[in-house]
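Task: complex structure prediction.
Instruction: return structure tokens for all chains below.
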Amino acid sequence: MPANAVDRLAEELGAVAGMKLELERPSDPAHGDFATNAALRAAASQRRPPRELAEELAAHARSLGAVERAEAAGPGFVNFFLADAWFADALAEMLAAGRDYGAGFAVRPEKVQVEMVSANPTGPLTVASARNAAYGDAVARLLEFGGHDVEREYYWNDAGRQMDLFRASVDAVRRGEPPPADGYQGDYVALLAAQAGDPVPAMLEQIRKTLHRFRVDFDSYTREADLADEVAPAMARIDTYESEGTLWARTTAQGDDKDRPLLRSSDGSFLYFASDVAYLARKLERHDRAIYVLGADHHGYVARLKAAAQMLGYDPQRVEVLIYQLVHLTRGGAQTKMSKRRGDVVFLDEFIDEIGVDAARWFLSDRSPEQTIEIDVDLAAEKSQKNPVYYVQYAHARIAGILRNARDAEMSAEPRGSLAPEERELVKRLAEFPALVAEAADRRGPHAVPLYAIRVADDFHRFYHDHRVLESDEQAFRLGLVKATQNVIWRALDLIGVEAPESM
RNA sequence: GCGCCCGUAGCUCAGUGGACAGAGCGGCGGACUUCUAAUCCGCGGGUCGCAGGUUCGAAUCCUGCCGGGCGCACCA
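Output:
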């Protein structure tokens, strides 16, 4: 039996009508609490007028207790108006589930590794990496909420040209010399120079702390050096050939646009792609699914990673590369460019100092990943009604206030009288949550969650404005309703790493 | 040149075939003796980049074009 009231209703309707159907919430309240276009969809294959099928479906639907009224409308929609009993059922299951309402939607739980950030430790994290962290972590949280076993992974280099350049830059400062050409500079280089020892692990530790502050914590850190023993065996498993004095992977045979060199011809050492292949093999040995979270500037990786999986003999479907577009910061309209090697950068720590973790995570999570983000720092820093993150948090805090005043007064999913329109709207909104979060996870699109949270806050604030909870005739029911609302808001915010305050 | 992403209200963006295309911000006007007014209510604003095509039906799918971003290393 489906776990939530909307799915259950859809299934019951489908059963009496003899067809599979999906319910949607019409934008126009005149079109009922829920509606379906099933008749329009089925019309072609059944070779019958959609309107006729809709009439039939409506007639069947009227036999259900949850349905108060059902009518065919428009070109072949069926609109359903639900009885109060359905709302009580829906609220009862929300209260029973608590903060886990909507959880466990994974049809087949998997072991999933989500690799994110993985920035070279040559400097503090920038806002570009912050989007990676915010997006990757939100996807990870969604998958966990669905029931998957998720590992958050950070891959870092401790060798290579950029590392050498970084170390040389720090050493130069230590000797009182200018950094090498194309080297790194800035206050953080001077700070690292003031400490003894290898600056690379020190920088990584600083990154780890910043991410922790950003509420993103990793289960595992893998270094390129950790893969050393696995590279040669991995090379033996894939399709290679020798040409121009080096070894090549024949990735073009698997859809890549060019073959990839594996060895540096000058000294015969393995190139980065060789480690990539070994690393991918390790990922797929240990996990059902390997997710990479990469910025748009790395989209060229997709084809070669898929090709590598194919050559290694794994189903390339198990490799998923999530690409997100870049971030632009504006301040009063003027753009701020980001580069680690110049002085005028915007670091994640500065960003958090300025707008706070909650606003930072919100604004890096509320746009679809394929959309370039533009954040006006001044606006995001404003703690006012302009800022949607506070609008949603305020709803949570308001409810906390009611619950404090209610002490341990009884809650009930059953209303004593009939429901007010604002109560019906709020219950329906909350009832959307399981499907919404399942779809957000499935599409790797966590931005749907904060946008939904705004809708919940809308419906709550409206309800709050029109109805008293405490000492009303419906106190028990309304306490239950606001508790369920608070749980959903808490969870929605938690899924994007934003806190839900008890007071504001 | 080739590949990926984007183009929807003044601005920032939702909307992966269905009912008149939505929200926030900005603008204007209202509402506190009440569990938090960081709230609520009302009013505006659109050739969904352009042109074809598929479909009973297209912002959504296909083709071409125009604009913008990002890639196309024996760097990572």
